[in-house]
Amino acid sequence: MNDDELRALPKAEVHVHLEGCFEVDTLVSLASNAGEALPRSPERLFEFTSFDGFLEFLSWSCGLVRSFDDASQAAYAYAERASAGGAIAADVIVNPTHWGSWRGDLTGLVSAFDDGFGAAEADGLATVGLCLSVMRQQSGAEAAELVDWMIEARHPRIVALSIDGNEKLSGRTGRRFASAFERAGAAGLRRTVHAGESSGPDGVIDALELLGADRIDHGVRSVESPEVVEALVERGTTLGVCPSSNLVLGLYPDMASHPIEQLRSAGVAVTVNTDDPAFVGTDLVREYRRCIEEFGWTDDTVREVAAASLAGCFQLERTASR
Ligand code: ADE
Ligand code: ZN
User: Fold this and answer.
1) Which residue's CA is the nearest one to ligand 1's atom 8?
2) What separation in Å is there between the alpha carbon of 16 and the centre of ligand 2?
3) Quick check: pTM over 0.70?
4) Any idea which ligand is nearest the CA of 216?
């Protein structure tokens, strides 16, 4: 399958952070409008020394988004990006803790994103659902507050509760967030959980058993435990795998060491995604291409993975049930 055929193949992106979609030029212009200095030169803006430094940078960049129009534009630009990679739908993660200028005004932030995604859809671009995310370092009370807001707002753009951040620093926090995730599930929201990236297979088990995860973001380190792989296969849980992100953030040294093919051939519902495409320097077609080249994926395999992404997409599930 060549790149044009890959692009034309209907697929969904189910693991991507809006925070990770700002290109250098956009950040330079947002910083200039906000009267903020860049932390480094534009050429070195995406150079990070640690995962935590990377997460802090996301807060710096999103902190530059201060107006409704800028936030709406960021949402529209993501839909353009998704469509350029041949995604017909996407579930996009937004972690409100990164968007410091909107503290106390989640309603305003979600309205701005809804405006951008709605305009994109009206222009024939990908349909996008929002997954609002808790940060691993937050308290159970903060997660409960977010879920209270989500249940009260019942905003049609919101499809899921998510959790992301650095599990290496937070340690095992499944119990802390269990009741918030349970309430979200009972209210009809989907649940997607970052696990098996900065945590090992234990994090994936906690995601399934304590947080009721309908989908796992990354989940690649499940491969270290045959029992966890078996649990994923049995439950049919979709993994939002992001190969290049895992390499850039140092989880694996090269594609040959990446476990996506091992998981797929064991029967896990893997999908291919970009995570933080601007920083990782990738797009959806390139992620599929890397798997084709490294693992010899046939056209049938590529079609199966694309079909798994459509089946695992909350936004498509939501729009189909309307
Ligand atoms: N937030 C943005 N990208 C992330 C990643 N790869 N893991 C955890 N949290 C994130
Ligand atoms: Zn992620």
Assistant:
1) 165
2) 6
3) yes
4) 2
13 φ/ψ sector (left φ>0, alpha ψ -120 to 50, else beta): beta
Cα of 211 vs its chain's centroid, Å: 17
Question: Tokens for 95?
Answer: 């972690």
Cβ–ligand 1 distance for 167 under 6 Å, the answer: no
Calpha distance 142→164 (Å, rounded): 14
- Ligand 1, closest atom to CA 166? 8
Ligand 1 pocket residue status of 203, Cβ below 6 Å: no
Domains and CATH numbers, the chain: 3-35+46-321 (3.20.20.140)
Burial group, residue 124, by CB count within 10 angstroms (0-12, 13-18, 19+):
exposed
pLDDT at 322 (0 to 100): 77
* Among 164, 242, 245, 251, residue to substitute to test ligand 1 (most atoms within 8 Å of Cβ): 164
Residue 261 annotated as catalytic: no
Token code pair at residue 13 = 């992106």
Point out the catalytic residue in the list 13, 19, 197, 287: 197
Q: Residues of the chain whose pLDDT is less than 50?
A: none
pLDDT, tens only, 59-108: 999 999 999 999 999 999 999 999 999 999 999 999 999 999 999 999 99
